[in-house]
Amino acid sequence: MKSLIPLLLLGTTLALQSRALSQAPPAPLPVIEVLGQKFYTWEEYTSSSLFQSAGLRCNTPPFDPARGSTKTGPSDCAYGSTNPTSEYAPTFLYDIPVVVHVIERTNGVGHLTEAKVQSQIDVLNEDFRALSGSLGANGFDGMIRFHLATEDPAGNPTNGITYSVNNTWFNDGGSYWNFLAWDTHRYLNIYTNSASGYLGYVPDLPQGGIVGSNEDRVVVLYSSFGRNGSIGPPYNKGRTTTHEVGHYLGLWHPFDGGCGTIAGCYTTGDRICDTARESSPVFGCPGSSNSCSSPDPYHNYMDYSDDTCMWEFTPEQVRRMRCTIQHWRSNLATSTICNPTYSSGCAGTGGFVPALSVGGCATGGSSITLDLTNGLGGASSFLFLGTTRTSIPMASGCLLNTYPFVGPALGPFSNSGAGAGNGTLNLNIAVPVSISSGSLMMQAFQVDAGAPNGWCNSNGVEIIIS
Predict the structure, then answer these.
(1) Catalytic one of 104, 244, 278, 316
(2) CB 125 within 8 A of CB 146
(3) Higher-scoring residue by pLDDT: 16, 348
């Protein structure tokens, strides 16, 4: 009997060990594998020498000096040149519908909530509109706005998001765009997946002839998509998508082509003169960086710096993007000719001029979206709509436009919640059914004791009614 005790103990020990082994947690899986290297955290990946040396920030093809445009288009914003003429200045609003195709693995990796997707649209608008209170507030307002599509290509209601579960597609393979793309003439198609190990890319600039093909798209690494992306700092603020949409609208990296020349800045480098010349990308957020005898543009959305370090498109970049929308993506955005600004506003207290913009054309009985920015926080405001206009000179050489009142269209409304000069109000109003054709004029007025005659007025805006 004594000889059995050690055997019993041994058996118990083996059973306990076997049970412990069966309950041991599985070995951790890498979050991403790139060029044969496995990374088990996003921080390990984005801080690796591979990430920088292999240029994994963006996989958009660099400028090719041997290649011209494969599609007829204006030289104002061609593949290899820019002419930022004043006609492309942001004087009216472009509104771009977006469809986001979320691709995930069968184990759920890559899933993004609707709220996360909407947060990315919000970031795009912060950056392209230089909205107050956002990281992009100190930038330049390009008057380009984005919204999740509300109708699919067949005219059915949609939230502008599609979901697909496919491991091959998640790995950025299998020509998924041929199965998922919505009309690329009419929608900005964004796909989230592994992005082939990059943070994002577009296959080509529109000037390369890709417009209208299923392949025309923006691809973003799912973990860097949206606000507070799971990738974590420094690429978790949604600026990867801002960067890639810049490419989608015709912009090069500021370091494409190297320093270029000062005299030939519209035909060398990034084909933009008001972006500082740069020989190579900047990573991180340095206190200073110089590569072409001038400070590098590392605050520009088209560089490779950290998300929190990016905050601007330059005025000439905006003009090139708006030129691209007009001539290369002419069916993408509404408002091309629907709301030309025909007057300047008058400055109120603190010198702020209320700015009114309108999204889209309109039909009688439909709704239009109005944006009023630079309003006086808490000031009472009135919006007047009509079909004719007259102009009355006011102080400082600006004009007060008056119309027959078509009310009660709107007003008074309160533009509260922000300090003077920072108020922003988004409104959706119905166009009177009685107006079936012609033009609709509108202007905002705000009570302001510090302005001429006790009020200040925004610019006047006109849209086409059809």
Answers:
(1) 244
(2) yes
(3) 348
Task: Count CB-CB contacts under 10 A for residue 454.
Answer: 9
Q: What is the pTM of this model?
A: 0.72
The number of domains in the chain is 2
- How confident is the model over 190-242, as pLDDT tens digits? 999 999 999 999 999 999 999 999 999 999 999 999 999 999 999 999 999 99
Q: Which residue has the higher pLDDT, 23 or 282?
A: 282
Most confident of 52-56, 297-301, 416-420: 297-301
Query: Is 326 within the bounds of a domain?
Result: yes
Computed over every residue of the chain, the mean pLDDT equals 80
Share of the chain above pLDDT 90, in %: 52
Q: Specify if 10 maps to a domain.
A: no
End residue of a domain, out of 287, 310, 334:
334
**Residue 398: domain span:** 349-465
Question: Average pLDDT in the 387-410 region?
Answer: 47
Mean pLDDT of 143-171: 95
Is 244 annotated in the active site? yes
